Amino acid sequence: MSAALKQRARIARVRRLQHNMAASSAAEAAGQLRHLEVSRERLARMRGELNPAQGTTSGAWLSAASELATRLDAARLGLSGSIEAARKVAAAREQARLQARKSQESAEKLEQAAARAAAEATENRMKNRTLRGRRAARPERDG
User: Considering the entire predicted model, what is its pTM?
Assistant: First the structure.
């Protein structure tokens, strides 16, 4: 294996690792975003379930339900900033993953080209040796 081929193979391995790390980071950011969105939906659902039961309801229950509804709304609205920030992080990490993937593909193409060049060089050396061997085996003619 030639030095160039070894170097290209090493670069391809590094690029694969970089892509895997970027993909993991992007998946983690997307998971965090999903978690925040699910939390917001859960808070909205809990808020919607705070309806009084049919019939008479005490003022204390209404007051407690109102307080709880206010807190749930505040928590849900407070998540908006976190969700927006998580979206930006997820988008940036996905962009980094795509860039790492392009670098990986480029490195793999260079590795394949180096492997083809090494194979061609080996084949040419073998042909040259075979031709030299045939010339040496031919008897010289005196003319």
Answer: 0.70
